[in-house]
Design a protein that fits this description.
Blueprint lengths: L2 H7 L3 H54 L15 E5 L5 E2 L12 H8 L4 E6 L5 E8 L2 E8 L3 H32 L1 H16 L13 H54 L2 H4 L2 H30 L8 E4 H15 L5 E5 L3 E4 L1 H18 L6 E8 L2 E7 L32 H11 L3 E6 L5 E8 L7
Parallel strand pairs: 7-9
Antiparallel strand pairs: 1-2, 1-5, 3-4, 4-5, 6-8, 9-10, 10-12, 11-12
Helix pairs in contact: 2-4, 6-8, 9-10, 10-11
């Protein structure tokens, strides 16, 4: 990157606007000067040419009447136009005291010989003359005007002064406009810095200005609101997790401490018979398993989304079958009855399988040993409908609105294993797939959990 580009990138937005304003005014003044100078030069030249033609006609009239060789030429007054008479032999006559003019050009000699009626030409280079030659009798007369650029130069100097003043004024105006226009940005920056320094996400930014500034402020306020919600969710998750982990950890710690004390005293075998020891170890294993499940569910929930997995076209019947197989292997005592048909959806297979597994696990806690958990999958309109029901006591009407809340457990479920996170994970997965989860009472008197997902056409052969 070259040096001017680096310099420009290093300038503030206010400085850039000032430079752009001053540059725009300078370019405008330069263009205006060029156009005005050209128009002024043309106007002055037309005026001089018209005057030369008028003077030459007067002198030509006198020359025709008296003859080019005899016409009277008054002495040069010291300023003004210059005149000259061109004779047929190519010689010239000039008034007494008049400065010498450049030699007669060949084209002017042609006018004197009668080959042309008149001629307007510039002779003598940059410091020359504008000469008009007109046929008169058997010769010609010439009227000349010394080239004078002083009016244009004076005009250019004036335009230069005006241009410098305009550029300076434009820079000041651009600076003021930039300061005024960027004032909301400055306040926005100050508010953002204050939020970053104080970590106070409740301090919103006042809605002011219009157009892009207002949209920017609203976007930042929406971002702050989202950050507040995220921080609140994190705090609630941490508090709930600490609360849920406390009970199994306390029980696990007490049991382990009991074993350690008995072992140190050497009374482990006498104080704990084989049956009691087996029961205690079984409790320890269950508590460790409960902690592992809770940790896995907390990890899934803390991720906040399921977007890490790629979306693909899949048969939901395969996902339900895989989840049912996992549920049977985890809890062999629970029977799962499947009634599924092929329904294709666009989704994330691992997340959907975890959601179905949580639904089956939840139903398995309540279903009596002689009653299977029924899992049904069918297409209904443009939706894939998954239903999981059990023959348990069902869900109280007061608990229905909070069934999918994280860590929520009904009073009747306090004695059962679980963390209260399974159905909240189901809700999150269903929401991520654009579906809807609901709870009702099944025909067998238990709970009926229903999930509706957008169905899609199956892939081609």
């Amino acid at each position: 990157m070259n040096r001017p580009a680096r310099w420009w990138r290093g300038r503030s937005l206010r400085t850039r606007l000032t430079v752009i304003s001053a540059t725009a005014i300078a370019v405008s003044v330069f263009v205006a000067f060029q156009v005005a100078s050209e128009l002024m030069d043309r106007e002055l030249r037309d005026t001089v040419e018209n005057q030369l033609r008028a003077d030459s006609r007067v002198l030509a009239t006198d020359a025709r009447r008296a003859g080019p060789a005899e016409v009277q030429l008054p002495p040069y007054p010291g300023s003004g136009r210059l005149v000259r008479v061109v004779l047929p032999d190519g010689s010239t006559r000039t008034p007494a005291g008049q400065p010498a003019l450049p030699p007669v050009s060949e084209r002017a000699e042609g006018v004197a010989r009668g080959s042309a009626a008149d001629l307007m030409e510039s002779v003598g280079g940059d410091e020359g003359y504008l000469v008009y030659t007109l046929r008169a009798g058997d010769g010609a007369v010439q009227v000349a005007h010394a080239a004078d650029d002083s009016p244009v130069n004076r005009f250019g100097f004036g335009m230069l002064l005006i241009g410098l003043f305009c550029v300076a004024g434009g820079g000041l105006v651009g600076r003021a406009v930039a300061r005024t226009g960027l004032a909301p940005i400055d306040r926005l920056t100050a508010a953002a810095v204050r939020v970053a320094d104080t970590r106070d996400l409740d301090a919103g930014i006042p809605d002011e200005g219009g157009g892009e500034i207002r949209r920017l402020i609203r976007s930042i306020n929406d971002m702050l609101s989202a950050l507040r919600d995220s921080r609140l969710a994190q705090r609630l998750l941490a508090e709930d997790a600490a609360h849920e982990l406390k009970t199994p950890l306390t029980s696990l710690r007490l049991n382990v401490e009991l074993l350690i004390r008995l072992d140190r005293r050497g009374t482990l075998d006498s104080a704990l018979p084989a049956a009691s020891r087996t029961r205690l170890l079984t409790d320890l294993g269950a508590q460790v398993a409960e902690l592992s499940t809770l940790a896995a569910e907390l990890t899934d929930l803390a991720r906040g989304d399921v977007s890490d997995e790629n979306t693909e076209l899949l048969d939901l019947a395969d996902v339900v079958g895989a989840a049912a197989a996992r549920a049977r292997s985890r809890v062999p005592d629970v029977e799962v009855a499947l009634d599924v048909t092929s329904v294709w959806v666009s989704g994330r297979p691992a997340a959907l399988q975890r959601a179905v597994l949580n639904l089956i696990d939840n139903a398995g806690k309540w279903s009596p040993a002689d009653q299977p958990v029924q899992v049904r999958l069918r297409a209904e309109g443009a939706s894939a409908v998954l239903e999981v029901d059990d023959a348990g006591p069902g869900i109280d009407a007061a608990d229905v609105p909070r069934v999918f809340d994280r860590f929520y457990r009904a009073d009747s479920a306090r004695a059962l294993p679980g963390s209260g996170l399974g159905l909240s994970i189901v809700q999150r997965v269903v929401d991520a797939h654009g579906g809807r989860a609901a709870v009702a009472r099944s025909a067998r008197g238990g709970a009926l959990l229903r999930v509706d997902l957008p169905a899609t056409a199956p892939p081609g052969p």
